[in-house]
Write a structure and sequence with these properties.
Elements: E1 2-4, H1 8-21, E2 26-30, H2 36-45, E3 49-54, E4 63-68, E5 73-75, E6 85-90, E7 97-103, H3 112-121, E8 125-130
Parallel strand pairs: 1-2, 7-8
Antiparallel strand pairs: 2-4, 3-4, 5-6, 6-7
Helix pairs in contact: 1-2
InterPro entries: Endo/exonu/phosph_ase_sf
Organism: Rotaria magnacalcarata
Protein name: Endonuclease/exonuclease/phosphatase domain-containing protein
């Protein structure tokens, strides 16, 4: 499940209800406006998930991936602490893929160089997120 939540803290009760009625092995939130206390509350409520998150460089943005504990997963150290992106290796050696989610603020350029590095690391990549697509019109 991928959601642009536009403030995890504000919508947390609704998100709890949604996820309790629609169980998902992988949960991805973008534009979380997250705070440490909100992420901790989410993690406590869904203790059967491993939760990975990054805040944004401003008060908006932020990303979170929650992966059910039954799924082998490891955070990719190379991209750790990159603002507004989480990159994970998912699965076992024979069936591994890379999962990445990114929030790109509307007033910033897309991090194309970062995307290139992610894709160079593994061709088996799912790159998703809220890119606030920019175009000239």
């Amino acid at each position: 499940m991928l959601l642009n939540v536009s403030s995890l803290n504000h919508y947390l009760p609704d998100i709890f209800l949604l996820l309790e009625s629609t169980p998902c092995p992988i949960i991805i939130f973008n534009d979380t406006h997250q705070r440490n206390d909100t992420v901790k509350l989410f993690s406590r409520h869904f203790s059967n998930y491993n939760v990975y998150w990054e805040a944004c460089s401003n008060n908006f943005g932020g990303v979170l991936i929650a992966m059910h504990r039954s799924i082998p997963v490891q955070r990719v150290d190379l991209f750790q602490n990159q603002s507004t992106i989480v990159v994970l290796d998912v699965g076992t050696t024979t069936a591994k893929f890379q999962l990445a989610t990114c929030y790109s603020p509307p007033n910033e350029k897309l991090p194309i160089n970062l995307f290139d590095k992610i894709l160079e690391r593994s061709i088996n990549t799912v790159l998703i997120g809220d890119f606030n697509a920019k175009h000239r019109s």
